[in-house]
Amino acid sequence: MERFQDRAIVLSAIDYGDADKVVQLLTRDRGRVSAFAAGARKSRRRFQGKLEPCTLLAVHLAERSSAMLRLDGAEVIESFHQLRANLPTLARALYALELSRELAREQAPQSELFECLATHLESLCASAGAPQTLRFELSALRHVGLMPSVARCSICGRAPGSHPRFDPSHGGVVCDNCAFRAPRAAQVSPAVLQALTTAQDGSVEVSSPQVLRTARETLSGFISYHLRRELKSRAFLESVEA
After folding, report:
1. Would you say 140 and 98 are in contact if contact means Cβ atoms under 8 Å apart?
2. Could you give the CA distance from residue 70 to residue 65 in angstroms, rounded to a whole number?
3. Cα dist. 17→33, 63, 191 in Å?
4. What pLDDT score does 148 carry?
5. E strands present in the chain
6. Radius of gyration (Cα) for the chain, nearest Å?
7. Using CA atoms, how far apart are residues 140 and 133, in angstroms rounded to an integer?
8. Rounded CA separation 82/154 (Å)
């Protein structure tokens, strides 16, 4: 039986039986894993207060006969307790966890996505805001190879033109000349494309809150299309930000 150590962020934890938990982790070296924590709800020494979502851990794992690993121990590296200080910040953190869980491959190394999420949670502790969520979304998408094209037409590679459209099925922006090839593409303003472009570079410059809101809605549609479902935490996030 192979035993190993890794760094991990708790994505979720659910009760199992009378005393156990099943934990989903995003690990640095093995991607997304599920782990069985025997006695986690009764063990004060090994697991008490350590398996809360968002917690950054040093974990001790072991392989089992099933696909699920066994969590033998954990030490807290960072609890990110500040994330629970107010509801909007917590909502942004939970959204980041769900998006990471859906983007991560199971038991496949994704150290860049792990570091991206850890950095984002740390930044939310300092100052949470809608621009940070947009930057995180684009960074996470880049690390898994799903970055939308916003500076060039996703079909022909030309500049977007004066009446750009955005089509998730084609991978992003569609120029005036290619609009006939993407009849379901929605019109999007140059200001929104500029917000998405600057966010890809690590900053967000917007002319108005409405532009930022539309940029996030545009990217949300892209994410939902490629994940083939709406993220539950997105609706919660939008409700507390309203």
Report:
1. no
2. 10
3. 20, 21, 52
4. 96
5. 3-16, 20-27, 31-37, 56-62, 69-78, 165-167, 172-174, 186-187
6. 20
7. 10
8. 40
Does the pLDDT value for residue 100 go beyond 70?
Answer: yes
Instruction: Decide if 23 contacts 35 (C-beta within 8 A).
Output: yes
Two structure tokens written together for 65: 């006969």
Residues 6+ apart with CB under 8 A from 239: none
Tokens 């629970």 -> residue = 84
200: confidence class by pLDDT, cuts 50, 70, 90:
confident
Query: What is the rounded distance in angstroms from the CA atom of residue 8 to the CA atom of residue 82?
Result: 19
What pairing do the DSSP bridges indicate for beta strands 186-187 and 172-174? unpaired
Average pLDDT, the chain: 92
List of residues 6+ apart from 197 with CB closer than 8 A: 150, 151
